[in-house]
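Q: Given only this backbone (196 positions), what sequence would you predict?
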């Protein structure tokens, strides 16, 4: 079973992904966590350290290249893995970032989305950008403004792919969000999606 988690920074998707894989392993199931990052955090930290700002199209080129590489490598790994695969982020994340930054969808990312194996379940972690900003600020490893997070959330909701996402309310505690995620998975299992 392939599950993809999406959501803005501070929505808790990485925490939930780790908990899901750890729980599956504790139950004796094969489970694999794969991260499809785009190096945004590293670029942000480098920009802050050296005092320069990348033009949006340059930043997008770097982020898209890194994300594409990770997605392709991780799909190859997932194909060889027998069990639960949880992907933290995917190509819709890059499409949302492009939208939030005023860039078009382009042709490559939508084309690849149509060619790659579709996930059995795509879960979107929706959260109020103000709460997400508090979380991001508290962890101190990102440099996201409230306006960035608001634009990112709106961009996700504007994606045509959003209609295929199962949306969970990520505004609660990690335990509450994880419980919602488990209910979503249980519902998918009831619809005969196998979980090896």
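A: Predicted residues:
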């Amino acid at each position: 079973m392939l599950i993809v988690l999406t959501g803005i920074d501070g929505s808790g998707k990485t925490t939930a992904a780790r908990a899901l894989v750890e729980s599956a392993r504790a139950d004796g199931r094969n489970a694999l966590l794969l991260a499809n990052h785009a190096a945004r955090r590293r670029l942000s930290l480098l920009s802050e350290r050296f005092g320069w700002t990348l033009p949006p199209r340059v930043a997008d080129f770097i982020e898209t290249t890194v994300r594409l590489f990770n997605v392709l490598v991780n799909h190859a790994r997932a194909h060889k893995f027998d069990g639960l695969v949880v992907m933290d982020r995917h190509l819709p994340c890059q499409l949302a970032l492009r939208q939030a930054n005023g860039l078009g969808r382009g042709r490559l990312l939508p084309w690849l989305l149509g060619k790659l194996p579709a996930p059995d379940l795509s879960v979107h972690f929706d959260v109020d950008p103000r709460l997400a900003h508090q979380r991001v600020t508290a962890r101190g490893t990102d440099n996201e403004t409230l306006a960035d997070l608001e634009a990112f959330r709106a961009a996700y909701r504007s994606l045509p792919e959003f209609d295929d996402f199962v949306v969970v309310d990520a505004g609660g505690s990690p335990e509450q969000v994880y419980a919602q995620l488990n209910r979503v998975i249980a519902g998918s299992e009831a619809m005969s999606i196998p979980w090896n």
